[in-house]
Amino acid sequence: MPTVSSEELAAAAGVNSAKLRKDFSYLGSYGTRGVGYDVEYLVYQISRELGLTQDWPVVIVGIGNLGAALANYGGFASRGFRVAALIDADPQMAGKPVAGMPVQHTDELERIIQDNGVSIGVIATPAGAAQQVCDRLVAAGVTSILNFAPTVLTVPDGVDVRKVDLSIELQILAFHEQRKAGEEAADTMPAVAARKQPADKGPDGDVPAVMPA
Ligand SMILES: NC(=O)c1ccc[n+]([C@@H]2O[C@H](COP(=O)([O-])OP(=O)(O)OC[C@H]3O[C@@H](n4cnc5c(N)ncnc54)[C@H](O)[C@@H]3O)[C@@H](O)[C@H]2O)c1
């Protein structure tokens, strides 16, 4: 039986081992002194708490470049997310196989959601169609939306929306790049370097507390 100690896990996660043991105790997981945690059982307990021990049928709406790439991504199944249907408004796409599944027309959306008991919908349509798709998904019973379209969705209470925007991630990296370049320039200019105060850093020592406008 492979085991792992709280010290090993704490070192790997970069946290304090006493805190880690306390957190695990909330899962009902208590290691054995001198032995540690049974790895397989711990993985099960964490998965159960994260809702990953059950199968989640997911629909993807908008099977263009992004929707097809998501449909082809093998990583969902291993985390318990089963792509139940691929849906697109383009009649030319209906019946065409993508990732081994026939694309279904949006006319079928409500039936597909109900037949498969789908509670999670992924939106990969153009921005202009996203709210209408979202409304239909919600009316059909979907209560969680993963939105890739660059638009803010309005949903009723009880519906969760997560937005994925890779350009924001790139903007964050660009911001850090710009700061790094600024710091390098300052290091090569003694007068600027002398003016550089530790207060340049935000409270977390990483980014300034207030982003430059
Ligand atoms: N969040 C990110 O980081 C990120 C990255 C890339 C693309 N995107 C966004 O993802 C979306 C899709 O991008 P893409 O490159 O795959 O576009 P695409 O044009 O290749 O595909 C869009 C698909 O949506 C379908 N569609 C249009 N209206 C629809 C409707 N009402 N119902 C169902 N299907 C509909 C179209 O027929 C098409 O197949 C765009 O909004 C794009 O801006 C986001």
TrEMBL record:
> Can you tell which superkingdom this protein's organism belongs to?
Bacteria
List residues of the CoA-binding domain: 51-152
Report residues binding NAD(+). Answer: G62, I63, G64, N65, L66, G67
Q: Where is the signal peptide?
A: none
- What InterPro entries would the database entry show? CoA-bd, NAD(P)-bd_dom_sf, Rex_actinobacterial-type, Rex_DNA-bd_C_dom, Tscrpt_rep_Rex, WH-like_DNA-bd_sf, WH_DNA-bd_sf
Q: What is its main location?
A: cytoplasm
Which residue ranges are recorded for the region named Disordered? 184-213
Q: Where, per UniProt, does this protein localize?
A: Cytoplasm
Per UniProt, the keywords (alphabetical) are: Cytoplasm, DNA-binding, NAD, Repressor, Transcription, Transcription regulation
UniProt function note? Modulates transcription in response to changes in cellular NADH/NAD(+) redox state.
**Family that this chain belongs to:** Belongs to the transcriptional regulatory Rex family.
Query: Do you know which PANTHER family this protein is assigned to?
Result: REDOX-SENSING TRANSCRIPTIONAL REPRESSOR REX, REDOX-SENSING TRANSCRIPTIONAL REPRESSOR REX 1
Q: How does it assemble?
A: Homodimer.
Q: What is this protein called?
A: Redox-sensing transcriptional repressor Rex
Which species is this UniProt entry from? Streptomyces ziwulingensis
* Organism placement in taxonomy: Bacteria, Bacillati, Actinomycetota, Actinomycetes, Kitasatosporales
Q: Which gene encodes it?
A: rex
